[in-house]
Specification:
313 residues, 13 helices, alpha+beta, TPGS2, SMI1/KNR4-like, 5-stranded antiparallel sheet, 3-stranded antiparallel sheet
Amino acid sequence: MGRELFDEISLNVIAFLEGHSAVSKVYFHEKSPASSFSLSSWERSNSPCVLPEDLKAFLTISDGLLVKWDARLHGETFALGCMGINAVSQLVEVPVNSDDDAAWVEMLLGQGELVAPADSLGSVAPAVMQEARLLREKFRAFDMDSSCSNGKVCLLFVKPSHAQVWFQDLSKRWFFIAKSFTDYFRLLVMHLGIPNWHSTFTDIGLDEGTRRWFRFMSPERLAIDLEQFHVLQQRRRAFKGEAVLPSSPTDKPMAEAETESAGGTRVDLENLEKSQSNTKSLPKKKRPQAAERQPDNWAQQRRSTAMATRGKG
């Protein structure tokens, strides 16, 4: 995938970073497409798991992704941001193991149809945990981002043909992030590769250092993450039968929070190959809604080449 196409499908994230006063340099590592042979070989080696169509479409355009950027603060320059997706050969299996039943509450939270009503948790909790133990024996996970230093971002197969994106923290606990690769891709670019951003989906949340960078780089994204963290904490407490804290006026149903958390315009990754073969038909982006928007200069700092390409469409 070339830099121009990536900037087009990522809502001009590179242009935004290059125009930000805190960023000194952006490094885009161009990747060649994955071959159909390498994709089919992966599926044969990891049968019966089948790569999701949106991830497969992405890999046929770019066999992985690596975008890094250096920050500039108080006259010093240092490496900070990183957005990565492993090549197909790096999608290696990660052990899905835990002897702590409490850690598997998250597994059930990520599967909406398995969550029992909060008012009946007291009587069915043992059965729910037994179901969790049975489920985890069938789960398989594959590392999606080797550049992640605060845990593992994994493509987790709850069924051979049904994969979601989960985060395993350094204590080996699992937390749900996204229902599809497409949703995860949007989250990845909206969080700008700021270190430790995945922690917003854990029961710990973002540390203060990460919050400071978001306040500086994307305060609107931080506001969405903090609101979602509150919603998730409420869900966790209700699921465990604990007292739920008073809801804030801005609380949203979980489905709505998940949709809003991804932010930005939905990217049709399954049609990337068609977009590359006919640059005149590159998908046109609509300006994100207020709740999803990056700072105002996000849409203004477009690269001239991308503008010219869209103008021909």
